[in-house]
Amino acid sequence: MSARIVLKAIVDQAGAVSDSPRVRCACIAELRERLCPVSTTELGLLVGVVVVVAALILRRASGASSTLNAAIRLEIHWNERSDYIVYVALPIPSPNRWEQVTNDESDCLVTNSGRTIMLRDVEGFVVAYPNGQVVDAEFLGLPPPRAIHFLPEDGDVDETPFDYDTTQKGQSRVGVEYGPSPANPGDKSHYRTTLRNLTDQPIRVTGFSAAFVKFKRNAPVRLEPGRLYGVDEFVNWYGADEDGWLQPGAIVSDPNNWGAPPVVWIYRCETLDGTNFVTGRLREQIDNA
Fold it and tell me: Which residue range is the domain that position 77 belongs to?
């Protein structure tokens, strides 16, 4: 069995596990590393475990790898932002449909049909950004609600390399910080990313991407960005103003950012007078988040 055949099987199985390109890429990348010269028997066994490994990656990407149960994670997300779209799976404990949460009363959630559910009883849920992209979910075998979706498969790739020092200079204008993700405590791949406008004038984020890091003598020197996200993703993920502008002193945050370190999130910015710059910060394995 050739490595090419095995790799094709990996791609096919990754696609079968999830429609999310982010998850499929993670599956392929993680399993590709295992394609070192091995025997035919070992390659056959590799194909057999593809679905298992891919499913684990899917759980991690969807937030289900968190050590917290569904009800606790949902409560955390509900308190994070008021503009999240939230669905719960009903009836409990054998759900067959989704109902959107419209309000809360003490320890209860109220759905659009008027039903009241104890938060602690929730087992299945979907939390999405205002544009419908999934933040976290426990689908329990149900298809996603119609208004909910993952990132579209097609997207621009940021092919412009950056020197690491260039992004560090930009932090004097827009600071980038990482911290723990409340819904995924102890998970190095999930973290809060916060941006702060440190200047006395508005600054607009026009695009951002996660960059692969090249090191020289253990120091980051070159960044190779991946998929380029636009203003819509920035506004929805970070809760920024609709036009993407950050007013002086403004702080925006995505508490559910995802990406295995070491990685640098790069933000393309512009000022009112048309000055363009980039900012970013290295997210390392040794961070306490």
Answer: 70-138
Could you tell me if residue 229 is inside a domain? yes
Largest distance between two CA atoms of the chain: 64
CB 87 within 8 A of CB 97: no
Question: Is 177 a domain residue?
Answer: yes
Contact indicator for 215, 272 with CB cutoff of 8 Å: no
Express each pLDDT in 247-284 by its tens digit: 999 999 999 999 888 888 999 999 999 999 999 998 88
- Cα dist from 186 to 60, 116, 264, 284, 286, whole Å: 13, 32, 19, 14, 12
Torsion 39-41-45-50 (CA) sign: positive
Average pLDDT rounded to a whole number, residues 149-158: 80
Q: Give the model's confidence band at 221: pLDDT under 50 very low, under 70 low, under 90 confident, else very high.
A: low
